[in-house]
Structures are given as structure tokens and as C-alpha cells.
Amino acid sequence: MRICAVIVAGGQSSRMGREKAMETIRGRRMIDRMAATLGSQVDSIVVNATGDTQRFLSLGLPIIADLRSDIGTPLAGVHAALDHAHANGFDAVLTAPSDAPFLPGDLVQRLADAGRSAAIAASGGQPHYLTGLWSRALLPEMELALAQPRTPRLQDWCRMCEAATVEWPTAPFDPFFNVNTLDELAEAERIAAEFGL
Q1: What spatial distance separates the first Cα and last Cα of the chain, rounded to whole Å?
Q2: pLDDT digits over 76-95, tens only?
Q3: What is the DSSP string of 149-163?
Q4: What CA–CA distances, in Å, run from 129 to 43, 73, 92, 156?
């Protein structure tokens, strides 16, 4: 199965005040950490970005834009990811937010083992709707969902496509810890230092 990972950097980083994905933890940018973890699990990695995509050129990764600028939620990133997978012959696409620097090394395998057309990660009983593995066959279904008068939220979409939920432990740390504030960035530094990440 050919899988493409799409790191979704579509948010406004309003709580951070600057581009979260480019923040460093122990000297490495968050998005570089993610690319390194995902690189051994997938066949290709791209970045999904809104606005000025030039800010990601230094990554050396292909950049895809949202196709539906009217959506304004992470669902737009999943849609762009599925469209990219369909257009480029991938069987499935893994999506993950750009502010999750500690993704697990078994992410793709465990989501694929769920044996469903869609599977999302969870930890501590909390679903992480944007961290999911999606079959490209879901694209027509998503197009239909987006054609509805009221655009579904990402969690609504997960329910519509009957996504499986795969749970990870939160000890010794939550692998889906995400960084939205300077305090969370400091906590990510602490985690990385303590566990040699």
C-alpha cells in the first residue's frame, strides 16, 4: 500500500503569535521532527498550507494548498490531502497537525491495522481527529459531504465515514502532545530533554 503523509499547517497559530511548525525544540524545528518520524513510515511527505506558502520553502518538501478556502477548518486539509493522494496514485493518506512533535513510530502501522477505510489516533480517551489514515477511496464521499448546505466539522466527518479510533498510552508522555502556546513549547522542551528526543 502506497501512503503519503500530509503535515497540515493550515492554522493561524494565533495563540503562539508566530508559525508553530517552525518553532524549535532542542534545536530542531517541530515540522522537521515530524518529517523524520513519518519518513520511515510512508512513501512520501508533503505539507498542506494556507496563505503564503513561501514560509515553508526551506523545508524542501512539496507544498499543497487547500482546494476549498471557504471551509476554514482542518477538514479542508484532509480534503486537500485526499485529493493529492487520488491525483498521485497513493492508496491512502496520513494526516497530522504541524504542531505535534512527538508522533509515535508505529502510527501508520497501528492505524492501518484497524482495517478500516479511515482510522484516527486517540490518547487518554481523547480523539485526535486530524491525526488519521484515510483511504483515497473516501474522496467522492467527502466531496458529497462538502456539497451539503452546512459543512461538517472534522469530527462529524469522522463519524460519517465510520473512522476507527486507535488508542495510544499517555505514559511516559502523550505522543500526540501538541504545541499551541509558549507554555506548551516549554513543556515540549522539557519532554524532549527528559526522554532524549
Answers
A1: 29
A2: 999 999 999 999 999 999 99
A3: SSPPPHHHHHHHTT-
A4: 22, 12, 16, 10
The model carries a pTM of 0.93
**Residue 99 cell numbers, joined:** 504542531
What domains does the chain contain, in order, with CATH numbers?
Answer: 3-195 (3.90.550.10)
CA 181 to CA 72: how far, in whole Å? 21
The number of angstroms, rounded, from the C-alpha of 42 to the middle of its chain's C-alpha atoms is 13
At residue 68, what is the residue type?
Answer: R
Q: Where are the alpha helices (DSSP H) in 105-181?
A: 107-113, 139-146, 154-160
pLDDT tens for residues 31-67? 999 999 999 999 999 999 887 777 888 888 999 999 9
Whole-number Å distance between alpha carbons of 59 and 64: 13
